User: What shape does this take?
Amino acid sequence: MKKIQLQNFSKERSLYNQHSIEVEQCTFDGTEDGESPLKECSNVLINQSAFSLRYSVWHCYKVNINNSNFSNRCRAPFWYCNNLNISQSSIMGVKAIRESSNITIDSCEISSPEFMWKSNEIIVKNSKITAEYGFFESKNIKIDCLNFFGKYSFQYVENMEISNSVFKTKDAFWHSKNVVVKDSIIEGEYLGWYSDGLTLINCKIRGTQPLCYCKNLHLINCDMTGCDLSFEYSDVDADVTGELSSIKNPSLGLIKYETVKEIILEGSVRPFNCLLEKK
Assistant: This one.
């Protein structure tokens, strides 16, 4: 591989159409403020480098990034990429990662509104992400040991597995399909509305009006202490612990609970065919 070391790049397309290169201890910044420094590249290693230019890595194949920084001036840093691996790095630019596939994020810190949209085959582990509309319309995702903060997360996602994670987010998993969350903490309002095939196992759930208008909803040993107006118009099979504030007009299925302060079965506009059973 051609090694590029200890250089600064500030012009547009400074490493355009480069193949089999190793970029080490380089900076991408300067008064020229050039866009798309790496574009149409393949087989790229980036190590200990710093980026502050827009559209940093576009239309690239097989890119491995380690111990590098993408500042908040890196607007849309990774788009239309395939085989993108990022480890021990920070990403602060808006709209990071879109319409890309075969992505691994490991031990990274990310703060990026509209992060990871419309992407496929994603692995995230040991990371911290702050984002609004994170993972919108992405598919085939595996997540382990993630701390997530933000709003409107995982909307319209399909085929996702999550474990050992903490989420502080509102409107999570709306319209999601085939999602499994295990051994995690989920705090926030309006969890999982309109989802289909959402399964929560050994989770701690907090927040108002969770899990309404759901289809094929499953909860196994989940603590829902303090949750109010839960399960409205949902098709649900749930075994929950803790003291719920209220359950309201579930449509179909079975809910086994330890304690609930209030069960609301009035004012429904849908048939009630759900069995509520105290354990």
